[in-house]
Amino acid sequence: MSEVPAQTAHWNRQDFPAAAREMLENSQTRKNVQHATNVIQAKRNKVTAEMPDWEDLREAGAQVRAHALRHLDYYLTQFEANCTRAGGHVHWASDAVEANRIILGLVQQHQAKEVIKIKTMTSEEIGLNAHLEANGVRPVETDLAELIIQLGKDRPSHFVVPALHMNRQQVRAMFQREMNLPDLGDRPEDLATAARTYLREKFLRVKVAISGGNFLIADSGGICITESEGNGRMCLTLPDVLISIVGIEKVIPSFRDLEVFLQTLPRSATGERMNPYNSTWCGVHPGDGPKEFHVVLLDNGRSPILADKEARQTLQCIRCAACLNACPVYHQTGGHAYESVYAGPIGAILTPQLHSMGEGRSLPYASSLCGACYQVCPVKINIPEVLIHLRGKVVREDQATFAGKFSLWNIGMQAAAFLFKDASRLAMAERIGQIGQKPLVSKNGFIEWLPLMLNGWTQTRDLKAMPAQSFRDWWAKEKAPQANSSQRNEMGHDG
Amino acid sequence: MADSSNHRAAILGSIRRSLGASESLSAIAQEYAAIARTYTRSSMSSAIAVVELFEDRLREYDAGVYHSSAGSVADAIAEVLTARSKKSLVIPAGLPADWLSKDFAFGEADAFDAYRLDKAEGLLCGCTVAIAETGTIVLQNAPGQGPRILSLVPDYHLCVVFADQIVATVPEAFDRLKATSDLPTTFISGPSATADIEMTRIKGVHGPRFLDVLVVEEAKA
Amino acid sequence: MRVSLFITCYNDALFPETGKAVVSVLERLGHEIEFRPEQTCCGQMHWNTGYLREAVPIIRHFVQVYRDAEMVVIPSSSCVSMMRDHYIKAAEMEGDARLVTEIESLLPRIYEFSEFLVRKLGVEDVGAAYPHKVTYHASCHSMRSLHLGDIPIRLLKQVRGLDLQPIQNMQECCGFGGTFSIKNADVSSAMLADKVRNVLNTGAEVCTAVDNSCLMHLYGSLHRQRTFVRTAHLAEILASGHAGAKVEEVRA
């Protein structure tokens, strides 16, 4: 078996500010991302506003997910027992290497040279496609967007609409090239039809399918998959063998809980009241679907996150991507700037935690903390709160290193903290600032250039100079004497 | 190389270390029961309003909506098929014989594999429950509905829904589904679609491109 | 009512006119204003940048200065949201139960300026006049943390001569985000560019908000681009046009 390096959720090429700078230069991608997120946001806002019980659904969803995580060991073993009883095989994988090993082993056991796949970010996370290819198995992505990504040798930029950064002309050009269809039109219908024709033969012929899973249902041992195109259903029902790779956090206690998530997920994810297809099944069912069914339960850095009570809520995520669509940072950069399968606000908190804060350390800072993500989250993950919490971890870890301790940031923040502890220090600093700023202040009274880390600000913005008199000085001069005299008068009356 | 049981123990051990002492089953059950479910369970709307809402939602998905009385299902199906220029349909086992007009050919699904289904003109079936608010029909592997492949591979799907099978809300549907939650279950809301290209919903990717629903206005016998 | 003004650190140093305006509006409404010179900062910059431990002494200092205050008014929604959203957590992190209790008792007495006028005093018309075309920038914290809703808009609608222009994408962040504007200066600038375009599209002469931090950010670009659009804190508009109040030309 040939090994490819175990892939992780984070691509680890560069930090967010640098990657974002690259993305900001790509005006076509930015335009595509802004168009798509605007459309999806508007639809989402419309179909959530029509639900008078939307906040109740969010609350119930949050509580169900938090409860499941609090008792994750119990619900996972319950799922395992029920799934096994229904004829499924449950595998456990601590990391990407083990998950890839299990899946490749199953594929090879059935002598499959080709597998069909439903869009699954979990398989992106573990680098499954590369591993299969390296071992002579051809994975075929069947979700339209994932097919676009695969044929274009691109990376997903959004986990509901992975090719959202491409417009129809770009998709057409790529399909024309890769499917050898020189006359293909650029209407979305033409492109969907091309995908239908390209894939139908594979659905009918290929014997092994690989999927992810939206929910593991503990009390029935079932899995739920939500989708739009029907490619998912093709993979779930036509092949002889189905392998589902699912993160351990995806478990919900009961089938009945779907009554919450099948309302909140589609409305949040695609702005539809219901997506075209949701499938649930348990194990194998004679005469219906695959003869053999395997679930691979993937940890890969998830279980340690549970120990952090503040950040545990990250794992409540049901991957609707509403936070991406609502995020003003994502609007500007698209998903690739996050250098992770999991982009956007949720990616900014999930990715570094999946790597025990060893990678993606700039991601918790990839947010203005505007709170739009929290507002739309259907399971009420307080993303801004977790971002700050993770920033706290990054700072503490950095301070433990020599370079971090003597970094400009740390020195500056320590100095500011020193000033803010005492008003006389602050007043003194203000006076020094009023004088010290003079070489930087232009004739028009504005600062147009700042040194070092502050330089980013003055690249595109001026900064108003400090006025000669602070508020506290004004008060001391103009108001305090009156206040004191009135106080004296009062005392005089009393006395 | 670690075998699978080691990984199981390692993952469960890691989870337990992270979570601390686990609680008793009754405590877990109590905590689960205490989850606030203040969302809407059922609708105040009249039965007629519920059916109307269901049909509106279906039309929004670009599904065809037809009507029939309980006594004339066969005629109504024949009309729909004529309008759609269909001559033969696949049917699951257990479909009521009195739905089937003699003017059309209906083949029982057992005789079809995926390749034959791919060539079939379409499927005729019933459903377990339908949801008005979301325009959804729910199929399970049961008599008159059959295995999942039937409503997937053929390009055309005609589903018969009785008025008393239509509930207003998603939670009401789950009340009806929970007894058979272990059956393969498919929620279908309109024809197959995608919004992957510029977020425009386009109809017809891999599932049936055409979905018609025949609403039978009286209760199922 | 005796109202204690927490001016905030950056208003103190950069926007003293906002503080003077708050004093003027509240005094006119018959309240006694006090300024406690021991005040410094709310701790938000440190907390939000991840310097959590460093923020705690600043928070403790704030609580010490104001624990006996009858009412604290703050012309900055982000500082108020720092207090409401994070103070208790910070004290808990420190394991300081007494501080938690003190914060719990102090928080209900803390108001953002426009919130104080409308929710506490029940005043929408403060008698101001401001004959300018104005657009309102809803800061993220005012919307999503304090849930001010249309409170600032209601106050602006009562101002004589003021022509209020609605802005597109009002709910989208201006890109300031405190140290975000430095750590991610490029993304912040791109967000700012969108916001400034929306401000300019309103045709307003003045952009107002309940946070000078956003306004400082917006004006940084409006000034760099040599537009003639000014910014003014809501308090400055509400303090304008009275006999004795100087007509607003603060940021020009």
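Residues 1-5, 490-495 of chain A have pLDDT under 50 and may be disordered.
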